[in-house]
Design a protein that fits this description.
Length: about 150
């Protein structure tokens, strides 16, 4: 099937197998390997991206479902390739990453959370990120990172 989508501000068009998952399309066809695949069942959130501004687990969406959509992956979150998004910077400063596998999905979910709730409580951050798993159990510093970013943007 023919699909066309905007990914990180660039239009991409091409043919996809109808059952191709969006996560695989991003990684295998577009080379955007920052979108990690941890489970293929929406359990871990490592594949979280933004689709039309909403946080979506791309392993549970078909590439054809993204036809006509505007997608943002971790590679396109910052204003330019030479910059970091404030959330990325907060994760560095607050040690919100350990092995780093969950980090892209956590950051994408966290930025979506702050768009919906710019000044969340710690409990709201924990609840807002509950669909993203960190296997290194680094939640304390992940929450600290989100809270630090929220306080800088507020």
């Amino acid at each position: 099937m023919h699909v066309e989508m905007s990914v990180n501000g660039e239009t991409h068009a091409g043919e996809v197998e109808p059952r191709t998952l969006l996560a695989h399309h991003l990684r295998d066809e577009l080379g955007l390997t920052g979108t990690n695949i941890g489970c293929d069942t929406s359990s871990c959130g490592a594949c979280t991206i933004h689709v039309d501004g909403e946080s979506v687990k791309s392993c549970t969406m078909l590439a054809v479902q993204a036809n006509g959509a505007e997608l943002t992956t971790i590679e396109g979150l910052a204003d330019s390739r030479d910059d970091l998004h404030p959330m990325q910077q907060a994760f560095i400063e607050c040690h919100g990453l350990q092995c780093g596998y969950c980090t892209p999905g956590m950051i994408m979910a966290a930025t979506s959370l702050l768009r919906e709730s710019p000044n969340p409580t710690e409990a709201e951050v924990r609840e807002g990120l509950e669909g993203n798993l960190c296997r290194c159990t680094g939640y304390h510093n992940i929450v600290k990172s989100v809270m630090a970013c929220a306080s800088k943007e507020a």
